[in-house]
């Protein structure tokens, strides 16, 4: 049996095994999720919060922006607090002061250290003890002590004022980048309190019979007894050992393998004289749309970043009244997915016809209809999210058309279903175009099948987000959300891109078919080995069982392994730009592939592993270290790759047209230098500053205004401006480049028509 077949069999085995583990862990999460009791009650039986209060409160949280305004269990945005950690800290302070006054007639801070230690021990015994009782009628209840209820009632008033428009908390709302009257309805704010309390209760209540909480002792707060578990530390160490062993094995494999010399390129560009089909020409509008969305994303990113300094204003303008932080951040993150996905969907439609040389009937119509549908979904979902955050919908209507509250899949359920429908239409169009190439058993069949399989996964796996219902337990919602974010965006798009690049380079005669087959299958095997189960590193502290820590730690370390030799890939790609004189046409597409390799190593590899081990993520989840990795990996890898693919396809669409190389050069260097500036001059230093704050005072402190709006952090936020400006200039260069192409294309078409009229005359 050939090595190629063995690799293919291994790949199938990895897929089966990985999804078996993922689904098994999912089953465990369903069984062991933090319960939502029928009622939280006082010792006298009076109900404080009901299950309906918690579930409706979750819908209120989602309607105000959810993850886009602060975070829950560490997942969400970074300017407002983590509501879990904030609630726990405030509840603990209230409990200690109430008890101190009752026992010593003094505030807690006035007590001796010995008395403080005694009260803190009593606090831990009260607040960590699990009092869930299952009644004979299958209802459940949690009994809370009198002192704890008094503390809850005290801080509930704080949140009722904070999410309303109490002028006493105006400054705090501004520091949190919250608009006035975030939740205007008092009844909704009371329900929101129930949900926030439940999230905090799960984070401090020990699992039955165990000495750690439902969230594996997250967030870090020594006063409350939330410190790293033994599993957290042990599996972190083993993950580092796995990483070193994996890198060693991969380097050995790479060094011992046979490296065939690159083929001699043909004298002429093998693709230059290929005339694009009608459906391929129609794909051009996808790329123009992507650039428009990219520019809008950059603009919104600048506004969102500025809100970290002026929470309700933009250089003095009261912008938050119209576009609050939760809306601009929603649009900024969602547009990142939309514009990058648009470039890749366009590439898939273009490359499918290029591979088969086949133009199915009505393919051009299908491409145009799909583009129109995507535009409707993008604009409709953005409008719905704005209306939802402005509280114009009731909670049920918000779920359908407004803001679902979950980062990266914020769009309302109707828009979500329509987007899935669009992806299925795309899959149908790709299938129709690529079918002849699938039937033809040629040398490139393995790569073509990997490409088509990734297209199937892209079309179907977005549907994982539909498994989250209106009242789905947050632990389960996070499980399915990361199926979408990690598997769909970070997983199968990666496989798709690897296959497309290999096919492009083979068609150009720059790499051998056999080498491409082996590289794609092996790279896909290595990636999916860690990438699928590695999804679990997002779920360490989301109410999942401890087994998630073990699986996630080891396999997220394996995710980084193939990135260790990514520099070799970058050098090889860089050399290809000069392989033949005609390669000048593809120079900047290749250069963006080189940038992708660089940011894969730095953004996904180095900065990704910075937050992957459980012990690291325990302290820095939801700090700006996460934003550092997100910007460097999402834009650096997927964004640069999307631009490279777009330029490659555009080269085929424009034929002999002379490109403005200066604009492309300016775009390439501005985007990369600007991205490096915002990451290393601002985001990473802010994250490290917060890291120290966590270690010294607890997680709540790192997310508090004392740190976020300290002179040092605000200075570092302003240090984003140079990088943001340079990056924005790069985006404008890309926009001008495509505007120049459109102008030249219109001019050429006009000239052709005039010449035809002249000839007829």
TrEMBL record:
<dbReference type="InterPro" id="IPR036927">
    <property type="entry name" value="Cyt_c_oxase-like_su1_sf"/>
</dbReference>
<feature type="transmembrane region" description="Helical">
    <location>
        <begin position="480"/>
        <end position="506"/>
    </location>
</feature>
<keyword id="KW-1133">Transmembrane helix</keyword>
<protein>
    <submittedName>
        <fullName>Putative nitric oxide reductase (Subunit B) transmembrane protein</fullName>
    </submittedName>
</protein>
<feature type="transmembrane region" description="Helical">
    <location>
        <begin position="518"/>
        <end position="536"/>
    </location>
</feature>
<dbReference type="GO" id="GO:0009060">
    <property type="term" value="P:aerobic respiration"/>
</dbReference>
<feature type="transmembrane region" description="Helical">
    <location>
        <begin position="588"/>
        <end position="611"/>
    </location>
</feature>
<feature type="transmembrane region" description="Helical">
    <location>
        <begin position="233"/>
        <end position="253"/>
    </location>
</feature>
<keyword id="KW-0812">Transmembrane</keyword>
<feature type="domain" description="Nitric oxide reductase subunit B cytochrome c-like">
    <location>
        <begin position="37"/>
        <end position="219"/>
    </location>
</feature>
<feature type="transmembrane region" description="Helical">
    <location>
        <begin position="413"/>
        <end position="434"/>
    </location>
</feature>
<dbReference type="GO" id="GO:0016020">
    <property type="term" value="C:membrane"/>
</dbReference>
<feature type="transmembrane region" description="Helical">
    <location>
        <begin position="548"/>
        <end position="568"/>
    </location>
</feature>
<dbReference type="Pfam" id="PF22085">
    <property type="entry name" value="NorB_cytochrome_c-like"/>
</dbReference>
<dbReference type="InterPro" id="IPR000883">
    <property type="entry name" value="Cyt_C_Oxase_1"/>
</dbReference>
<feature type="transmembrane region" description="Helical">
    <location>
        <begin position="715"/>
        <end position="739"/>
    </location>
</feature>
<dbReference type="Pfam" id="PF00115">
    <property type="entry name" value="COX1"/>
</dbReference>
<feature type="transmembrane region" description="Helical">
    <location>
        <begin position="446"/>
        <end position="468"/>
    </location>
</feature>
<feature type="transmembrane region" description="Helical">
    <location>
        <begin position="336"/>
        <end position="357"/>
    </location>
</feature>
<feature type="transmembrane region" description="Helical">
    <location>
        <begin position="286"/>
        <end position="309"/>
    </location>
</feature>
<dbReference type="GO" id="GO:0020037">
    <property type="term" value="F:heme binding"/>
</dbReference>
<feature type="transmembrane region" description="Helical">
    <location>
        <begin position="671"/>
        <end position="695"/>
    </location>
</feature>
<feature type="transmembrane region" description="Helical">
    <location>
        <begin position="369"/>
        <end position="393"/>
    </location>
</feature>
<feature type="transmembrane region" description="Helical">
    <location>
        <begin position="631"/>
        <end position="650"/>
    </location>
</feature>
<dbReference type="GO" id="GO:0004129">
    <property type="term" value="F:cytochrome-c oxidase activity"/>
</dbReference>
<keyword id="KW-0472">Membrane</keyword>
<dbReference type="InterPro" id="IPR054309">
    <property type="entry name" value="NorB_cytochrome_c-like"/>
</dbReference>
